[in-house]
Task: structure prediction
Amino acid sequence: MKIFLDSANLGEVQTAAGWGVISGVTTNPTLLARAGAKDFQAVVAEICRLVPGGPISAEVVSSDTAGMVQEARELADIDPQVVIKIPVTPAGLAAVKQLAAEGIRTNVTLVFSTAQAILAAAAGATFVSPFVGRLDDIGQDGLGLVQEIVTVMDTYDYSTEVIAASIRHPQHVVGAALAGAHIATVPFKVLGQLFEHPLTAQGIERFQADWEALQGNK
Ligand code: G3P
Result:
């Protein structure tokens, strides 16, 4: 499973890229607003530079197909790495179909059911993003949805890749991997938490202390 960073904060992207573990980035209008990214296109271009070669998702905000396609073409012009995030609506999937024909990659977002994922794959989505945490928030099984979608994509040999999104904690990342997700897109805080284990910290401290004691004994 690949790890993407779910962030539009350039500092976070730079740090996470430096850790060597991310191979793409996903953004959305909320994340861009949170990052204060007024020059949205410049931020997307900079993220592409920081994560070379990786798919970088940028979301359209129009609600009609023509508007989405227009926005998508402008976003795709920023860099070939840009993938267009489109909500799973009839207008959105019509845009996905058109963009696929133009060779522009898409990430169908706000997916909360397997039925929606099947439609996204049928329209030619490159990626489909089930929202794990938001489903858990309303008492449903987010990781169960990921597993179901992966099973359908595998059974019918769809090329659409599954991105487990709306990740809230490290166990979601592990669960997404066990469910067979191709990718988990992870917020910066959770990415940092993935490194942590008390025995790792204790072990480093102990090795350090023993090494220093050895130097002192020379
Ligand atoms: O980018 C889509 C998704 O990851 C959003 O997550 O935390 O707003 O539910 P969240």
In short: DSSP finds eleven helices and eight strands in the chain. Strands lie at 2-6, 25-26, 56-59, 82-87, 106-111, 127-130, 161-164, 183-186.
